[in-house]
Task: structure prediction
Amino acid sequence: MIQAIIAGGLMGLLSIPHCMVMCGPFMTISYPNQHRLIAVLSHQWARIVTYAILAIGFASFGPSWVIRSIFSLVAGIGILWTLRPKKKDCGSCHPQRPNLGLENHHPFLIGIIHGLIPCAISATAVLTAISMPSSLEALGFVIAFGMMTSLPFIAAHLPLVNRLCKPIIHWLHKHRKPMMGLLALWLIARAWLGFHYGESMMSHGLSQQFCLPW
Result:
């Protein structure tokens, strides 16, 4: 259980730059008032609950280790592919995001919607969780992942931290590619260990010792 929580927290830590860049605009649209801390807490809690329900729900199907390894390998290669050098950087091509009026809905409902948004990182976290030996470990992994990725959004709405948000987000965006590269290598290594050791590795819990849950 402890290994699963550590692994989930580690994956969440490496995913923070991606989450800040990709989900930051969603949070900004939902809560234009930067001091609505209670609303943000409710939002993030709903997102974590959604991940947990998905993990527990899919865990009952018990997918094979081959499918798990393939998903992990594809996710790792896909992340590396997105990090490839671009010929042109069209930073000014993004259209202005419309105001969706999400602030008129309950934060918990918005958080559930947020948890259901297709995302490679959250999907990988859920797939990793459902491959755990037990539902309790799957729950611990996905909760640790969700809590770790929630920290920057919660901290950004604290009055004392608010002034530091801009330089922190700038630093995270600057170092986003190296951290995402580490996450991709972790996923590829996880897939390789699965193909190499197969179910014997999962049954003896060896993957847990490497913080590479199955």
User: Anything to note?
Assistant: The CA atoms of residues 73 and 189 lie 8 Å apart. The radius of gyration is 18 Å.
